[in-house]
Design brief:
By secondary structure, this protein is mainly alpha-helical. It is built from 14 helices and two strands. The protein has helices spanning 11-19, 36-61, 74-80, 85-106, 120-139, 141-170, 183-207, 209-214, 235-253, 257-274, 293-299, 316-333, 341-348, 351-358; strands at residues 30-31, 34-35. Helix 2 runs parallel beside helix 10 (257-274) and helix 7 (183-207) packs antiparallel against helix 9.
């Protein structure tokens, strides 16, 4: 029975799909009277300062109930950091001006956004055979045939407008313009590329003495991170690691401007949150991965400065690499010869991490030693 089911969509099904759209779909290339082009350039910067401002309010409020969630005492920001807040602000403003300038020349102002419904129907038609084969693999040919005969348009609708975008979003990617039959291959390749880009460039800046002392030591002038210090770095690092990494991911995945704006904004939220200085149980950004503010704070400490990658990611690949390096480095700093699952459990409870922090008082930025 399943073999006799045609995977192509009928005219009535295509008519239905052309008339229904999710709430986020907007054929007009602008949101809130701002073009998608400028949205892709400015959304993440506006998000950066709004999110930082919320943490600045927490820092200044000095609420007693909040103190137990602070990773460091407020006084440590002044005592341990090697760079002033004014220097941080000036550098970040320069970095963001550079990002806007780069993006203005990089992003395609005529790139497809939501687009008219007519451009999505051929894509859904191309996707339909893959959806049917996936259904057959998941629920068997008999049930798949029944669903396809009665609900093909609904299945394609939810896969095209919800399943694929959500899967790509949680992977930190959005693929729209490549051929649909290449979506899975493109997603896997780009995920590998972006993870590798961030992980190994950041790692190289800790292994290579010249790169660290000349470039990456700027960012590690903040031994006690705080929210708006997340974007503080040497201009070369900001360009190569952050700006070029985002630009290449946008180019490889063929994102629309609106998708790029969303991805850049999520990445910005994650950067600020991982430097916020709070281990908040009610912060959803700290639920998704163990690469959170508590973890990244350890990376900024002297005893683990050059042993942990400290990469900021929602991707499990980097999280696994970070976890292995972090556990090894922290326990080595505490004089432990080896680690096991019990050690990991203790680290999750921040007791081991606090033991590392208790040993630290910084007097100068120490360049790495090559091993």
């Amino acid at each position: 029975m399943a073999q006799s089911v045609a995977s192509s969509l009928t005219e009535s099904q295509k008519s239905y799909l052309s008339s229904v759209h999710p709430w986020y779909y907007k054929p007009d290339p602008q949101l809130w009277m701002v073009s998608d082009f400028w949205l892709s350039l400015l959304a993440h910067i506006i998000a950066y300062w709004l999110f930082c401002f919320s943490f600045e309010i927490l820092d200044r409020a000095d609420w007693e109930w909040l103190k137990k969630y602070r990773i460091h005492e407020s006084s440590e920001v002044t005592l341990q950091n090697r760079v002033t807040k004014k220097q941080v602000l000036a550098t970040i403003i320069f970095q963001q001006a550079m990002q806007i300038t780069f993006g203005y020349h990089w992003m395609d102002a005529d790139a497809e956004t939501g687009g008219p419904a007519s451009i999505h129907i051929p894509r859904m038609e191309a996707l339909a055979p893959t959806v049917l084969r996936s259904l057959e693999a998941l629920v068997g040919r008999g049930l798949a045939a029944y669903l396809w005969l009665h609900k093909a348009q609904d299945v394609v609708y939810y896969v095209y407008w919800w399943a694929i975008p959500l899967a790509q979003l949680f992977a930190g990617l959005s693929v729209s313009r490549p051929p649909l039959f290449n979506v899975q291959l493109t997603n896997v390749f780009c995920s590998f590329f972006i993870d590798t880009w961030q992980y190994f460039l950041h790692r190289a800046m800790h292994i290579n003495t010249f790169l660290f002392t000349t470039i990456h030591s700027w960012h590690h002038g903040l031994y006690v991170p705080y929210a708006y210090g997340g974007g503080y770095s040497h201009p070369v690092e900001g360009l190569v690691l952050a700006t070029c990494g985002a630009a290449i991911s946008e180019w490889l995945t063929g994102m629309s401007l609106r998708q790029a704006a969303l991805l850049f904004t999520i990445a910005t939220f994650k950067t600020v949150d991982d430097h916020c200085g709070y281990s908040l149980p009610f912060d959803p950004l700290q639920w998704f991965t163990s690469c959170n503010a508590d973890y990244h704070d350890i990376h900024h400490q002297v005893c683990t400065l050059h042993q942990t990658s400290g990469c900021i990611s929602l991707n499990p690949t980097i999280e696994y690499w970070n976890k292995v390096q972090l556990l090894t480095a922290v326990l080595h700093a505490l004089g432990c010869a080896s680690w096991d699952t019990d050690d990991e459990t203790r680290l999750r409870g921040s007791q081991t991490a606090q033991g590392c922090r208790d040993k630290i008082f910084v007097t100068q930025i120490t360049p790495p030693t090559l091993q």
